[in-house]
Amino acid sequence: MSAEFLSDDWFEELAARLARATPAGDGTAIRIGQIARETPSGGEVRWTIVLEPGKASRIDRSPTAEADVMLTGSYDSLRKLASGELTAAQLLAAGGLKLSGEISRLVGAADFLETVSTALGPEPS
After folding, report:
1. Does the residue 26 lie in any domain?
2. Which CATH number is 85's domain given?
3. What residues form DSSP beta bridges with 47?
4. What's the rounded Cα separation, in Å, for the pair 90 and 60?
5. In terms of residue numbers, what domain contains 72?
6. Which terminus of the chain is more exposed, N or C, with fewer CB under 10 A?
7. Does residue 3 lie in a domain region?
8. What is the dihedral of CA 72, 76, 80, 81, to 10 degrees?
9. Does residue 38 have a pLDDT over 80?
10. What is the DSSP string of 44-89?
11. Does residue 109 register a pLDDT over 70?
12. 21 vs 90 pLDDT, higher one
């Protein structure tokens, strides 16, 4: 995505891309929360990606949004994840990303996650 990570423009672009990602109608709903710590402003930023069967994926920027799974990392780690510079597996192995919550739900949502990953990947040239 072209906008600065975690800027209002970045969230707008993320929301637009997520709206185009509609998982199949027979999957399991999942809410994936993310917390970026050590942001340039000195605080943290929270958001949740909501994936529901047969509905457009969306983002919830409420800091109190409920999530099934939480991804927590530094601003830099989550920026690298969002840009595709590093994968979640690489960040987990390096200690740059922590998972909490109902982690087993990620397995049940594998098809959803693939749909979202494709939607968030690089724009075709």
Report:
1. yes
2. 3.30.1050.10
3. 34
4. 26
5. 8-120
6. C
7. no
8. 10
9. yes
10. -EEEEEEE-TTS--EEE--TT---SEEEEEEHHHHHHHHHTSS-HH
11. yes
12. 90
97-123 per-residue burial string, b: 16 or more CB within 10 A, e: under 16: beeebeeeebeebeebbebbeebbeee
CA of residue 35 relative to chain centroid, distance: 10
- Segment 61-66 shows an average pLDDT of 87
Q: Which residue has the higher pLDDT, 27 or 44?
A: 44
Q: For residues 101 and 62, is the Cβ–Cβ distance under 8 A?
A: no
The pair of structure tokens assigned to 88 is 């979640």
* 5: nearest Cα among 68, 83, 66, 69: 83
Number of domain units in the chain: 1
Is the confidence at residue 23, as pLDDT, over 70? no
Rounded (5°) CA angle 100-30-77: 45
Banded model confidence at residue 92, pLDDT cuts 50, 70, 90: very high
In angstroms, the CA 106 to CA 33 distance is 12
pLDDT score of 45 more than 70: yes
d(CA 120, CA 125): 14
